[in-house]
Amino acid sequence: MSDQTHDLDARKERDRIRGTAESTAPVILSVRDVSVEYKTPYGWMKAVNNSTMDIRRGEAVALIGESGSGKSTLGFALLRMLVRAARVSTGEAIFTDKNGTTYDLFRMTDKEFRTFRWDKMAMTFQAAQNVLNPVMRISNTFHETARSHGWNDKAAVKAKTLDLFKKVQLDPNRVFDAYPFELSGGMRQRVSIALSLLLDPELLILDEPTTALDIITQRAIIDVIKSLREQLDFTMIFVSHDLSLAAELADRVATMYAGEIVEYGPVRDVFYRPEHPYTVGLLNAVPPIVGEEFTPLVAIPGATPNLLNIPSGCPFHPRCPFATDICSTVNPPLVDVGGTHFVSCHNRDKVTRDQEVWEEMEATVGA
Amino acid sequence: MLDMTEQTSKDATINKGQPIIRLEHIRRDFDTRGGHITAVDDVNFDLYPSDILCLVGESGSGKTTVARMAAGLLKPTRGQVFFEGRDIYEMNKKEFGEYRRAVQIIHQDPYASLNPIHTIGDMLRAPLLKHKICKSRAEATKRAGELLELVDCRPVENFIDKYPHQLSGGQRQRISIARAMTLNPRVIIADESVSMVDVSIRVSLLNTMLKLRNELGVTFLFITHDLAVVKYFAWEGNIGVMYVGKVVEYGRTPGVIGRSVHPYTRALAAAIPEADPDLTRSKEKLQLRSLDIPKLTELPSGCVFHPRCPYWIEGLCDTTKPKLIRIDEYREVACHAVEQAVARGEDPRDLAVTDQLANQLMRE
């Protein structure tokens, strides 16, 4: 019992350090001024706008935001899996592998990228059933993925796959020769995570890994991701609209709004000392669930902007209780406020979680 | 007739008088390609005026089926649905019409539930004119404006001539609420009505619905899988936790959320991640014996939860179905282990003792 308590303390301590202290690990992915646009009948729509962030080796970074914030688009752009109607219009993303070789993600040829993708950087998708070919056995999917990356030793692929299945707590015998329809949603999601790890990628992007799953299944996926991070050595970016998932899994959190990263910092800084009004607004809307105390919720006034018509200046200013004149004309830059915590807000000194301020604003703006 | 203004929200469960809706031993079977299933089995509820009742459960728990039976959209295989004391399937046409008007539904998906070729004004005017609540188009337009105000769609001119595609998801859901309110219903059945909107908008939608309940005395049957939503919306009401077709725990919201008794409710509460890094990472977990929800075609014998339950008592839980028993003034729980704890004189709400025991059992 005391051993377990000790383990728990040690883990908490590590989590605490991960969540606050400045990581000194080398940067694995450097994203600079990346913008992504979609072609629409009404012109180019900016889904991601001048996003800049550094991701350090070994970290788990959460991209959070509501629908239309650009979080998934950014994830897809990094793996060059955007739909045809989209383009990366500005910026660069540089990946540095463990040998120090750098890869310019947006300037590699398609052929080069096909070898790079899944080998160095892989992705798990939101709808796991769409990733798995319905007429192929799970085993075939794994073999084919390996073969297309030049790994032809079938026995070795099978051994690796079964080992991954064990790591994601799937029964290897039941799953390996099954068809996707024979598995539950949670199992398919775990298969998809195993598939993304088949070639030992250094960076894994997970798009909404627990969305649309039941609570207990969600918990199982969270626990699987946690244990994988303890056993294997990979960096992780996960995209989610769910703040609690970020609180649970992330070392670092980036809040996105209308295509921009508006706050980026260690998880405990972002949750306990948020400085961007939008992050504050999100946190006010998701109180703790357990406990016998009632926590009033406060909505963020107004609605998310139309991306074809993003407000001038700071995109959040029409919904922000702290906005001043400058906010409607000048878009604030993302500045370091200390301890690798970045915020883009003109009035960050005035930002408060005080609910009255928010309620007053809601009353004036309305729905 | 009960005076609705007299009811204090505090006494939600001990309201006297006649329930608006009573579900008595309702059961619903379906024949599917996979075989015969019982989606809902022996569910009982009383819904009193201006009550809030939330049904929570994972997919396949039968919560939506219960809602559809309460709304008269689906006939129970067994059991009865009463509206103001009358069985809805023994009503004459006029009475049934009254019931239909008094019970309205707000659906999950505001993109599917609003007709794209009608303006918001058309949608709100149609029922007002059809049911002769308003005598002229002008009067109906005025009333439509009032309804839009009621659901916080202001200024009204920005909404009334718009088509659904011109509105955001949150705004569309407000229109669905306004449309449900056209016939001055007494009960609103909301099936996952806020699940498709973003968190920042969700709260204000819930506030709008709470306003209908607090100011107009509308009764709510609210279906959701999201415990955070339940906690906020039904704080002054009741929760029924459903698991594969059965109610396993029922009671006042603060108690059910704060000190859950049934092992399934506890597992849910323990499994939910919280939006607070320290809290969520140090949360005590309740380990289940299995992750899989049983197939509805092959339900386990005895208590349907026993193959997953950490408190499972061999020879009892796998053979005998537990009944919902009352463990205190407000709470009902269907669990043999809880029943035995009560018989031993223990307080089953005492989390620490039972969970320690459960985790110990799991390790052995």
Note the run of SSEs of chain B as H and E: EEEHEEHEHHHHEHEHEEHHHEEHH
Strand order in the sheet with the most strands of chain B: 6-7-8-3-9-10-12-11
Strand portion of chain A: 15-25%
Low-confidence stretches of chain A: 1-5
The overall strand count of chain A is 12
Largest β-sheet summary of chain A: 8 strands, mixed
Radius of gyration of chain A: 21 Å
Mean pLDDT of chain B: 87
Main beta sheet of chain B: 8 strands, mixed
Oligomer: heterodimer
Explain what the structure shows.
The complex is a heterodimer of chains A (367) and B (364). By secondary structure, chain A is of the alpha/beta class. Chain A folds into three domains: 1-120 and 201-289, Rossmann fold, CATH 3.40.50.300; 131-200, no CATH class; 290-365, no CATH class. Helices cover 35% and strands 22% of the residues of chain A. Chain A is built from 13 helices and twelve strands. Chain A has helices at residues 2-20, 71-78, 110-116, 128-131, 138-148, 154-167, 172-175, 185-196, 215-231, 243-249, 267-272, 277-285, 355-365, and strands spanning 27-40, 43-56, 60-64, 86-96, 102-104, 121-124, 203-207, 235-240, 252-257, 260-266, 335-336, 342-343. Chain A has an eight-stranded mixed beta sheet with strand order 6-7-8-3-9-10-12-11, with helices on both faces. In chain A, helix 6 crosses helix 8. Mean pLDDT of chain A is 88; it is low at 1-5. Chain B contains 13 helices and twelve strands. In chain B, strand 7, helix 7 (199-216) and strand 8 (219-224) form a beta-alpha-beta unit. Chain B has two domains: 17-115 and 185-247, 3-Layer(aba) Sandwich (Rossmann fold); 259-363, no CATH class. Chain B has helices at residues 63-70, 93-102, 120-130, 137-150, 157-160, 169-181, 199-216, 227-233, 253-258, 263-271, 277-282, 336-343, 351-363, and strands at residues 21-32, 35-47, 52-56, 78-83, 86-87, 103-106, 187-191, 219-224, 238-243, 246-252, 325-326, 332-333. In chain B, the strands form two sheets. In chain B, strands 6-7-8-3-9-10-12-11 form an eight-stranded mixed beta sheet, sandwiched between helices. The relative contact order of chain B is 0.12. Chain B is globular and about 70 Å long. Chain B has 364 residues and is of the alpha/beta class. Chains A and B meet through helix 1, helix 9, helix 10, helix 11 and helix 12 of A and helix 6, helix 7, helix 8, helix 9 and helix 10 of B.
